[in-house]
Automatic annotation (TrEMBL), chain A:
Residues spanning the signal sequence: 1-24
Name listed for the protein in its UniProt record: Extracellular solute-binding protein
PANTHER family named among the record's database cross-references: ARABINOSE-BINDING PROTEIN-RELATED
Classification of source organism: Bacteria, Bacillati, Actinomycetota, Actinomycetes, Micromonosporales
Pfam name, any one: SBP_bac_1
InterPro entries noted in UniProt: Bact_solute-bd_prot1, SBP
Entry annotated with the keyword Signal: yes
UniProtKB/TrEMBL annotation, chain B:
Highest taxon, organism lineage: Bacteria
Organism: Paractinoplanes globisporus
Family recorded in the similarity comment: Belongs to the binding-protein-dependent transport system permease family.
Transmembrane regions listed in the UniProt entry: 27-46, 89-110, 122-143, 175-196, 217-242, 277-298
CDD domains, per database record: TM_PBP2
Residue span, ABC transmembrane type-1 domain: 85-298
SUPFAM superfamilies documented for this protein: MetI-like
Protein name: Carbohydrate ABC transporter permease
Main location: membrane
A Pfam family that the UniProt record links to this protein: BPD_transp_1
Length: 456, 308
């Protein structure tokens, strides 16, 4: 009897303990006021989808550690397709990163409440006139509700194509400037059993790039107008954009099965392994103009002993035939945000300040060619950058960087997740023939209105 | 077994008769830890999901808006939801039928006296223990436009059949079903194999003496005896179809153009990338209700036949 009674008491105790520990677990992570670091020592956990290879990130960290050897920075690369899924619970639980990448647009909307306001940090680092010292594109997109959610590290621009220089040279091809020339290039490559253009059309961000480029060929500035609600997605220019998008599939420019491809890793790997001659990527691809980054990327793609080849940026062809040079567009690629729940805020601020505002940090960013630095006046040092084939690449790469510096058209910062999802649905339904461009744009307009975009 | 039962029962009776206080059923303290965990983790989770389903909420912001049953009414007008339901039904019927045929066939064949039967059993069962996350890249590669399947087709002169299997809406769902069948036929096989060992040999012998051939014996003697196993497999298959997430997410991400969207992938898409946590919760509740109805219906169908 006593043993039964004891067991009963024990069971109640166990149950109570479980309940209490469960509640304690639920409440865990709320007290994050303490700071285990100082401005010169501590551990900083940095999560990002970019730099897209850890070697580049570790290169930045190595430079940082030359000045701050007692701050250990751990970089965790998260694929962009898993970014939201990984970061949301991490930040909410308080067990996530101290520093995390932030991009204008949907990410700022989703994660602004977890980001410290970095205005004081910017003022401290660059003085009261800090806004004049940073590229404007890196401030506006990362500001929300009057708060600077992240310090822009660098910017990226899209709207161009990258070609495999060796393939174009081998088959004596010129970069296409019109839709018909593009088709011709693809015909020649296909006759030689080489893929022409590869796109991960299953990923919205990259479909948007191609669509925005087509739209800029149809009517420059129209894409921005519909993004802000100054024009509707059913505008004839957008319908025409989707018609040309469909032509890319029907005329054999897009690879077979493009709507089942991811840009990363599928299209990226296929281009870097030489299976295709062209790909739609932005200025972040400039890094693969260097032998070091391309070798690392080839290795990451599972190719051992592959020989790096020169990649070259070319203007997006005038696919509408309207005589418009398709302009580039861009955003802050990534700012670095500091988590409100970080326990290493002092060290995190030192790292962010060094990356985003110091000459050394920005020079490291510039020289990696992954981003264009956000601090004005810092440019890549081409005397120290080893391109795969400097003779053919140096001119186009320098021209690209010069041209990008004057770009003001936004890339993704004006679009919410819902609108981006609507664009992907419209793009894939048109590509697969499930909807006409007219019907797809009507559905897209409805999706944008449902997402709260106000149209004039 | 019988001896143990008769020894325990009088003890229990004695405890109950011992004192007035001990007359209360003593089960509660014993099940309390499990009850706390179960109610705390599962039923609380279901209840909380039900509550969230009445909100317009991104899962993080403090200001969630109460919208009542609006999320549910939206779901019934959502074409992607109905696509997901349709895919689930097709997926269940096709995978269940083919797995049943294959599992039964393997079980029958391996009940015959084959050499190296143990190795065949392992080969059939191995896919069950391989994680979909490991196999997904393999299948993505295999079914890619320049993948192994198309290479084989071209090699044997069937290049006309080569196509981007997971890159077009017409073939993406069949690929997902193929992978699932490959993965789970081993379970069907093992259960049928075990069930067949329970068939009374004298009945089989009598059938033989009456002149029944192999097929007749299988259809008229063995198959009816396997009914319980088939119902259990149908129930597992139906619930598995409703829960399907890993293979379509890892191989096709629910695409192209929602061609392989299932309830599980759609819940994830709405909840995580698009941050419509309230809407995703409403989808989850609907999934739960459908799973319960399906399980009850299949169980009821099994019992009804048993009673006849």
């Amino acid at each position: 009897m006593r043993s039964l009674s004891s067991l009963k008491s024990l069971s109640v105790l166990v149950a109570a303990t479980l309940a209490v520990t469960g509640l304690a677990a639920c409440g865990g992570g709320s007290d994050k006021s303490s700071d285990a670091s100082t401005a010169t020592s501590g551990t900083v956990n940095w999560w990002g989808w970019t730099p897209t290879d850890t070697a580049t990130a570790n290169g930045y960290i190595a430079e940082f550690n030359k000045k701050y050897p007692d701050i250990k920075v751990n970089y965790k690369l998260v694929n962009i397709s898993d970014w939201v899924a990984a970061l949301r619970p991490a930040l909410a639980s308080g067990k996530g990163p101290d520093v995390f990448d932030m991009q204008p647009g949907a990410y700022v909307t989703q994660f602004k409440s977890f980001a410290e306001d970095q205005t004081p940090l910017a003022e401290q680092a660059l003085g009261a006139g800090w806004k004049d010292k940073i590229a404007p594109i890196g401030i506006s997109g990362l500001t929300a509700d009057g708060k600077l959610t992240a310090m822009s590290v660098g910017s990226v621009y899209a709207g161009m194509l990258w070609i495999n220089g060796d393939i174009f040279k081998k088959y004596n091809l010129k970069p296409p400037t019109t839709l018909s020339e593009w088709q011709h290039v693809c015909q020649v490559l296909k006759q030689n059993k080489v893929g022409c253009f590869v796109q991960g059309a299953a990923q919205e961000g990259f479909d948007q790039d191609t669509l925005q480029s087509i739209a800029n060929s149809v009517q420059p500035g129209l894409w921005t107008k519909v993004s802000t609600g100054d024009a509707k997605w059913t505008d004839p220019g957008i319908v025409k954009t989707f018609q040309i998008w469909k032509q890319l599939f029907d005329s054999g420019i897009m690879q077979e099965g493009a709507v089942g491809y991811q840009q990363y890793p599928d299209a990226n790997n296929d281009f870097l392994t030489g299976k295709y001659g062209m790909v739609m990527m932005g200025t972040w691809y400039t890094q693969y103009a260097t032998g070091k980054a391309m070798t690392a990327a080839l290795s990451a793609a599972g190719v051992s002993g592959a020989k790096p080849f020169p990649i070259l940026p070319i203007a997006f062809p005038d696919v509408a035939g309207a005589g418009n040079t398709s302009e580039m567009y861009g955003d802050a690629d990534f700012g670095l945000a500091i988590s409100t729940k970080s326990q290493s805020k002092a060290a995190a601020e030192t790292f962010v300040k060094w990356m985003a505002t110091s000459t050394e940090g920005q020079q490291a960013i510039a020289d990696q060619l992954n981003d264009l630095p956000s601090v004005k006046g810092v440019t890549p040092n081409f005397d120290q950058i080893q391109l795969v084939d400097a003779a053919s690449q140096k001119g186009p790469v320098q021209d690209l960087i010069t041209k990008a510096a004057s770009i003001t058209e936004p890339r993704e910062s004006l679009l919410s997740s819902d609108v981006q999802n609507g664009i992907l649905a419209a793009a894939t339904s048109v590509a697969t023939g499930k909807a006409s461009p007219e019907d797809a744009t009507k559905t897209l307009q409805q999706a944008a209105e449902a997402a709260g975009v106000t149209f004039k | 077994m019988t001896a143990t039962t008769t020894r325990v029962r009088p003890e229990r009776k004695a405890v109950v008769q011992g004192s007035g206080r001990m007359k209360k059923p003593p089960g509660l303290p014993w099940i309390l830890p499990a009850l706390v965990l179960s109610v705390g983790l599962i039923y609380y989770g279901i209840g909380y999901t039900g509550y969230i389903s009445t909100l317009n909420w991104d899962g993080l912001s403090p200001g969630a808006e109460h919208v009542g049953a609006h999320n549910y009414t939206r779901i019934f007008h959502d074409p992607v939801f109905w696509d997901a339901v349709r895919h689930t039904l097709v997926f269940f019927v096709v995978t269940f039928v083919i797995q049943t045929i294959l599992g039964l066939a393997f079980a029958v064949i391996l009940h015959a006296k084959l050499r190296l039967a143990a190795i065949y059993k392992v080969i059939v069962f191995v896919p069950v223990v391989l994680a979909p996350a490991i196999m997904a890249p393999v299948f993505r590669h295999m079914f890619a436009p320049d993948g192994e399947l198309n290479a084989v087709l071209r090699h044997v002169g069937l290049g006309g059949l080569a196509q981007p299997w997971i890159g077009q809406t017409s073939t993406a769902l069949p690929v997902i079903m193929f992978i699932t069948i490959w993965e789970w036929t081993g379970v069907t096989f093992v259960l049928y194999y075990a069930a067949m060992t329970q068939v009374d040999p004298s009945v089989l012998e009598a059938a033989r003496m009456d002149g029944a051939g192999n097929m007749r014996t299988l259809v008229s003697i063995i198959w009816p005896d396997l009914r319980g196993t088939t119902v259990a497999l149908a129930m597992l298959g139906a619930i598995g179809a409703l829960k399907t997430f890993d293979v379509p997410y890892l191989v096709t991400i629910g695409g192209p153009n929602y061609a392989t969207e299932f309830l599980g992938t759609y819940i994830y898409r709405m909840t995580i990338p698009l941050s419509h946590v309230g809407y995703g919760a409403a989808l989850s509740i609907i999934l739960l209700v459908v799973a319960l109805i399906m399980a009850l219906a299949l169980q009821f169908a099994g019992r009804e036949r048993k009673g006849r």
